[in-house]
Amino acid sequence: MTNAASLEPSSAMSSSGASIRVEDDRTGLSIETLRRAFADHLFFLLGKTDRSATAADYYTSLSYTVRDRLLRRWMKTQEAYRNPGNKVVCYLSAEFLMGRHLGNSLINLGLHKPVQEAMEASGLELDDLIEIERDPGLGNGGLGRLAACFLDSLATLQIPAMGYGIRYEFGIFHQMIQNGWQVEIPDQWLKLQNPWEIMRREESIEIKLGGHTESQHDEKGQHRVVWIPSRTVVAVPYDTPVPGYRNNTVNTLRLWKAEASNEFNFDAFNAGNYDRAVSDKLTSENISKVLYPNDNTPQGRELRLEQQYFFVSASLQDMIRRHLAVHPNLDNFHEQFAIQLNDTHPTVGVAELMRLLVDEHGMYWDQAWTICQKTFAYTNHTLLPEALERWPVELFERVLPRILEIVYEINHQFLEQVAKWYPGDEGLMRRLSIIQEDGEKSIRMANLACIGSHAINGVAALHTELLKQSTLRDFYQLWPEKFFNKTNGVTPRRWILLSNPELSELYSEKLGNDDWLHDLSLLPQLEPQVNDGAFCDRWRAIKQTKKQALAEYILNHTGIEVDSNSLFDVQVKRIHEYKRQLLAVMEIITLYNRLKANPNAEIVPRTFIFGGKAAPGYFMAKLIIKLTNAVGALVNCDPDVRGRIKVVYLPNFSVSLGQRVYPAADLSEQISTAGKEASGTGNMKFSMNGALTVGTLDGANIEIREEVGEENFFLFGLTAQEVADTKAAGYRPRDYYDTNTALRQVIDQIDSGLFCPGEPELFKPLVESLLNEDTYLLLADYQAYVDAQDRVSEAYKDQTSWTKMSILNALRTAKFSSDRTIAEYCSEIWDAKAVPIELQDYNPDRPNAPLRVPIRRAN
Ligand code: 26Q
């Protein structure tokens, strides 16, 4: 059944080499070969027959079969990147929310159809196998998913690139909803074996932690600082292929796992101290154990700092090793690598690269600093002041003593410059300093990132403007030329093609090909179709199919029956007060009150669908989840409502659940307080799938509205400027409560215990927060929001015009492809160029041609 690889000497090889003939079971693309390869993996890799195989075994065998077909391209790509002159973009991120790999690899390789047929011929349903893959949830939300979309676009644009991060053993927790509350379950995503990664133990890297530093003089009498760590851990790389769409590029996502260093362990072990040896091993491995489940609120824990340093140091050492393999020294490091800092989480890398260049490679400080600044660029993802990362100096001193010295030196030299430029401006010096002196002395990571980078960017036009005016204002005045806007984007491969194959087929059919997947700016060609009745019917039918599928999922996962003809009103995102899920709940209660007051009121039936996780320690966010479910419990069963309003909380929102949800939405809720959401990316996924937006002028909503047209967008609420002015004038939420009866009724009901009769005090913290602080101005925006929702309902009654608006939304989202975003980063920030990968020995017309793999003999 299998074609075992056979070793044979080859005249084409060097005298020390042999070659291995890899037969076409590893590469062949015919249905028959795919079936054989699949069966081969099942038997020889997993030791299963079709009698003993589980569904998971079938998934694993198929994944290996598909991975085999990526490997030539992957190896070729990595070879090409070793050539000097091909600048490699290194995207450093503490989070990568990749989503499932199998389906994505199939479409990128163009193998979806043959594999589907091969599975069918084996009596298996491909879609079922795809569903078995555990979502690799190595991120919290927007920032982690952005990193994944960027990797997809980098590979599709054929840019040499690596993602570097942490291989968390436990990703974002699995969320269950019990009695309306969020319950967190550990995410054991590695329980099944992971066929998408390859461990490369031989490329492990040692990481120092703790201890102290000593001044020494080297052989040449040069002054050198040596870091004597109190412990070391080993970073073991695990590589995952990142294929481009229908090209030969396969980039790498390299994630580091922490292991105990052997020597260290043996000391205790050999001394007979087995307990100590074991506990040290566990302590080391803790570093990559679990993802911190915080989103937009940093947790200043020692282990988190160790995580950051661990993956950044390993990644930088990896780059230096690669560099020195083909260059005599590190003088041109910045010409070979562009490093992007995904928020401040990897920013300790600025000091670490200095340490590696100066301490370990003997470079002079000034030259090293020039290289550093030319290499790094920093993306900011937040405007919330409480979200800016700060680390106590005391903690740095204990965990990273040498890094602290370097941070001090960077700061010293920088402030000397500032003093020359702005003599006597003490206030400016204090604000620009990396070290915050008042309160607990701490390190401001955003300042380090700004000082150590040649480019600083926000993630949407408004966000970048606000950064320049407020959060990073002093740095902007110092270096205006360093500031860029890079409006976020999302990959159309996952968020249109994979999520919505029905819509994709319509596009390809009408455009005559699938070029649009590389270039969304081709879609506006279809705009005249809004006047074609058949096209509009087809559009509505696709939406209906997606809604029915979601309705079925909702029934299976929540037990709630929803009407797929109702308006699907969706808010899926992390739960945070600034995102104002509570405002949406207040709207639901408002509609409910109208129905209670007049059970025969004419209303457009709506299904309110929520999804998203709350940080486990975020009390208010968890209470908002509970309230949403409590309101749902009452509304869903009230006979006066007669099913015209339903409230659903989808448990465990994730990338794969997103793929089901976005295509099924009629309405996208993007209702953050203006000036608080840096960009948003879910907003783009909804729009691409034909949902209309009800939203504020915040983040990328502004640009979405510009693109789709204001007549196709439901705008409401205060602008960022008005929010600032309202606060400056002394905002009093109680004024709104006192003067708006519908609003007062809603708040009184939440306060009264109507939604939790057994526990009438339960929701009081929400009411108190609304009436006393209302930091996010829900009361100020309440009426505008209710009015906007009334306009939505009115518009939905006219299905013909709603469908037109839906179509125009989807066709006008070209700007929000991450291909556009990445092209901008490449030309304006990274100076990175495409490197097309040639597979000389690969003829797409003869995919079964055998491949010759050289085998190097050990001496
Ligand atoms: C930091 C330190 C310690 C522990 C956790 C953290 C931490 C982790 C994740 C801090 C922040 C995050 C995530 C932030 C995030 O997702 N921001 C979102 O980024 C998106 C992509 O740019 C934007 O679209 C969103 O507007 C922004 O909220």
What features would you describe in this structure?
The protein has 859 residues and is an alpha/beta fold. 47% of the residues lie in helices and 15% in strands. It has 33 helices and 26 strands. Strands 3, 4, 7, 8, 11, 12, 13, 14, 18 and 19 form a 10-stranded mixed beta sheet that branches. Helix 9 crosses helix 11. The longest helix is centred in the N-terminal third of the chain and has 27 residues. It is globular. The N terminus is likely disordered. The structure holds ligand 26Q. Ligand 26Q binds next to helix 6.
Rounded to the nearest angstrom, the distance between the terminal CA atoms is: 35 Å
List low-confidence stretches.
1-16
Rounded Rg: 28 Å
The major sheet is characterized as: 10 strands, mixed
Ligand species: ligand 26Q
Category by helix and strand content: alpha/beta
> What form results from the Cα inertia axes?
globular
Helix content: 40-55%
Strand content: 15-25%
Average pLDDT for all residues: 94
How many helical stretches? 33
* Extended strand count: 26
Briefly summarize what is shown.
The protein has 33 helices and 26 strands. With 859 residues, it is α/β, with parallel strands linked by helices.
